[in-house]
Predict the structure.
Amino acid sequence: MDLGIKGKKAIVCASSKGLGLGCALSLAEAGVDLIINSRDAGNLDNALNLITSKYQVRVETVVADITTKTGQEAVLEKAENNLDILVTNAGGPPPGLWSEWSRSDFILALDANMLTPIALMKEVLPGMIDKGWGRIVNITSQSVKAPIPALGLSNSARAGLTGYVAGTSRQVAEFGVTINNLQPGVHDTDRIKSLDLHTAKQAGITSMEAKQNRRNAIPVKRYGTIQEFGSACAFLCSQQAGFIIGQNILLDGGAVNSTM
């Protein structure tokens, strides 16, 4: 399928590896020029080389922490007020126990996983509205629909972002701009590896045992891939997705058992 977005320009946050990289690769395959970002210069160079070795698109890189104001400004400056697609993403807060989290822990989580995407959306939406076209995809989590006890910081921050998107997406839809959320379940990323290690430590088992237990709890009996995730993101950014507004789409292998 031709997604109809060749020649568009996209920012993909935290895209040197994992789900962000998957999104960047799929958008590049569709012919989208990219601004990619990471805190790690080495990982970002690797992502740049991978993308440009596969696809004939323009790729610009920004080494910055997207959860800071200076990082956001550096990434947005590359767009030169001419952006078509925004994919927000940031690393999730660490797992833990409710009794361990302080106010400062919640503020950090809100800054990274709620306030950063909101700040970026507020900056790019006016330009998209003026052009009469835009696509925003926020990478959130399956925990918004099915909270994970050890991820209370993430549950809280991402639920707040979801509420913001629910209202804002419907206010900008008439201008040809869509905002949707992708809710990843368990994908084969560094984040999941760290969670498997945490689970193994808590349960007194090996990380391989923790991984197998997690696989067994997923109906498809495997972890998702960044390629699968990226393809879903690219479709939400396509011309064909203009009637999808304010949705929360699970990519979890069937792990969340719900009729809604």
User: Anything to note?
Assistant: The chain has two domains: 9-185+225-248, 188-223. The two ends are 28 Å apart (CA to CA). Residues 93 and 154 are 6 Å apart (CA to CA). The chain is about 45% helix and 15% strand.
